[in-house]
Specification:
Length: 658
């Protein structure tokens, strides 16, 4: 059964109907040609049979009748008794041989001369036959006797001498056996007709087979072989017409869906189980949409849903949430294991977010990652949060140039011990000295660096510069430990320990004067690998601190095995601690936990004296923030340190206020 669906399947349905109609027309034409050819064969066969019969009749008339015709007898309108007896004997013999049923002879004035037919009702010659016979030429004509037998009329002219004697000839009727003389012709006709039927039958079978193969090939070209859903090619073909009709009043939405933890299913249960899960997810998605909507598999564990005829943006968001609920609630049992399926769905609208499918795919992809980061499950594309813009692409080019041209600089922010207000170390913070925009803070360019793959080259540069600066201060009699942030990707590199130790050796800096700060995210990406790399560094004397603790999802169990020396409490817990009892409680608990594990505690983002005093009361070891100092260039930091050292003996409030 074919459903005629207006919308995204209209083109496909019309194509199928047109192919079937074309096949029907071709078959009709072929069958018509068959009927015409068979009819033509029958006509030509009958003509050949008549011609063969006429020739036979002429032979019989010439060999049996002519010798019996005498001009003198014919002139008297009769045959001699001897001729009649001989003629009758010959006819009886031919009849016994099955070559003849009957024979009659008339004179040219219509007088019967001989009747050798056993059937009654002899055919009387017509006036036209008599007139034609009197013209004196041999001729033969086919017809049908009264009893339905084939009969032929033959005019036998006499010789010129006989005609001069008073007669011009006789008219002969020969009645042939039904079908006997045309059997060969009929056999040939039957064989020819059978050949035509077979040939055209093969043509029809070939056409049907060819159409089946074409449709099958087209289906394979447009469908995903694993799930049976339409593929990316079909999406581009079918979406073109729908996008052309989309308007702000009747938008079209594209939903990009990415399954969560699908890799774990493949790794744990095997790829066969993963394929089964994809098939069942595909069936669930297909059952959850309307007939006019389009569900496609884009590859891997990514699916797309094209929603047509939506009233507004809210409807698209609602449909995305509905699909997500269906996936979360549907039972998925694979290899005897009950699986719960979750996903992230990004939504892009046409024409609001794009008028072409590539634009919608890109916007939906951005929205999907927004949904992942926010952990909401679904998100509609918001251009205000899209970092994949033309400006961002231009910034990537500028950042590559900046790395080549040494446009980055390091500023250093001091960390102060709350026990004696002594500067214990400094943190190296990168800045970009842009040729036209001036000095840019890391928030302006670090996200772009992370997405573009340039973070590792910058991390290596920061590490070398900070180590060289710390070595320079040490040679100047001002030994300061310097802390360097290590990106998640750099942490998991096999050669990180070798690079760090090589840089320390080249600068002749003791490993104890270097502290690496890593984020919770970097650790949780691959905890075992992170522990292995950090242990190598810690065994050589390099200190390790967990940065932004409390902002991520570090398992407390890993704190027991990671070779760390300090925890830096994230500024999000610190900034509202005086007003939020919960934040203070968490900070106090983290401080107590760190001390129990033998770690020091550093609070970052401290911006007021009241907050500094409260952290000191909670037992925090070090603080870092604008209440102490903003990040400073190396020369400015040296002046600040000299001034801070001179006033270190003053009360905390006075020193911090300075």
């Amino acid at each position: 059964m074919v459903k005629v669906i207006v919308g995204r399947r209209g083109f496909q349905v019309r194509r199928i109907l047109m192919s079937r109609l074309l096949l029907l027309v071709v078959i009709t034409l072929v069958l018509g040609a068959m009927a015409w050819l068979i009819q033509g064969l029958e006509s030509r066969g009958q003509e050949r049979a008549d011609a063969q019969g006429a020739t036979t009749a002429e032979v019989i008339a010439a060999t049996v009748v002519r010798p019996r015709l005498g001009a003198s007898d014919l002139a008297r309108g009769q045959l001699s008794a001897e001729d009649l007896t001989g003629l009758r004997d010959d006819v009886d013999q031919l009849r016994d041989d099955g070559q003849l049923l009957g024979l009659r002879v008339w004179s040219l004035d219509g007088t019967p001369l001989f009747d050798g037919s056993p059937a009654s009702g002899a055919l009387q010659p017509s006036d036209s036959d008599l007139v034609r016979a009197r013209q004196g030429k041999l001729w033969a004509a086919s017809g049908q006797a009264a009893d339905g037998q084939s009969q032929l009329r033959v005019y036998l002219p006499l010789s010129t001498a006989e005609q001069n004697a008073g007669s011009r000839g006789a008219l002969v009727q020969v009645v042939l056996p039904h079908g006997d003389l045309t059997a060969a012709a009929q056999d040939r006709l039957l064989r020819q007709q059978a050949s035509v039927v077979v040939i055209f039958g093969l043509v029809i079978v070939g056409l049907v087979w060819l159409r089946h193969r074409l449709l099958r090939r087209e289906r394979h070209a447009r469908h995903d072989p694993l799930t049976g859903l339409l593929n990316r090619r079909a999406l581009y073909e079918d979406a073109r017409g729908l996008l052309a009709k989309a308007s702000f009043k009747r938008p079209l939405a594209f939903l990009l869906l990415d399954l969560s933890e699908f890799k774990s299913v493949n790794d744990t249960l095997g790829h066969t189980a993963g394929d089964l899960l994809l098939q069942r997810v595909a069936a669930t998605l297909q059952a959850a949409v309307r007939p006019e909507d389009l569900v496609v598999r884009l590859g891997g564990d990514e699916f797309g849903v094209l929603l047509a005829h939506l009233p507004d943006t809210a409807a698209a968001q609602g449909r995305a949430e509905q699909l997500l609920r269906r996936l979360r609630e549907a039972p998925f049992t694979v290899e005897g294991v009950d699986l719960s399926v979750d996903a992230s769905i990004g939504v892009a609208l046409a024409p609001e977010h794009g008028r072409t499918l590539p634009e919608l795919l890109q916007r939906a992809d951005v929205a999907m990652y927004q949904a992942k980061r926010s952990r909401r499950g679904t998100a509609v594309y918001d251009p205000r949060t899209d970092q994949h813009t033309v400006g961002q692409l231009a910034m990537v080019t500028d950042l590559r140039r900046a790395l080549d041209n040494d446009e980055f600089v390091l500023h250093y922010q001091p960390k102060v011990s709350l026990r004696d207000m002594q500067v214990t170390s400094v943190e190296a913070l990168v800045r970009w000295r842009h040729p036209t925009r001036g000095l840019l803070p890391p928030g302006e360019f670090l996200p772009v660096l992370e997405r573009s793959g340039l973070m590792q080259p910058l991390t290596r540069w920061v590490l070398r510069q900070a180590i060289q600066q710390a070595a320079s201060w040490r040679r100047a009699g001002m030994p300061l430990q310097v802390a360097v942030n290590i990106s998640p990707r750099s942490l998991l590199q096999d050669d990180l320990p070798a690079r760090v130790l090589a840089a320390l050796l080249a600068a002749e800096l003791p490993a104890s004067l270097l502290q690496l700060e890593i984020t919770e995210t970097a650790v949780m990406t691959n905890p075992e690998r992170a522990a292995f790399v950090l242990t190598q560094l810690q065994s050589r004397g390099v200190e390790v601190a967990i940065d932004d603790f409390g902002a991520g999802y570090t398992s407390l169990a890993f704190l027991r095995i990671l070779p760390i020396t300090a925890l830096k409490i994230d500024r999000s817990l610190i900034k509202d601690m005086l007003d939020q009892e919960a934040d203070e409680a968490v900070t106090s608990a983290v401080t107590d936990l760190a001390h129990r594990l033998g770690f020091s505690v550093i609070a970052e983002g401290v911006e007021s004296l009241a907050l500094l005093d409260r952290l000191a009361a909670l037992g925090c070891d070090q603080v870092q923030g604008y209440v102490i100092s903003a990040p400073l260039p190396p020369a400015a930091l040296e002046g600040w340190l000299a001034d801070w050292q001179a006033r270190r003996s003053t009360p905390v409030e006075t020193a911090a206020a300075s």
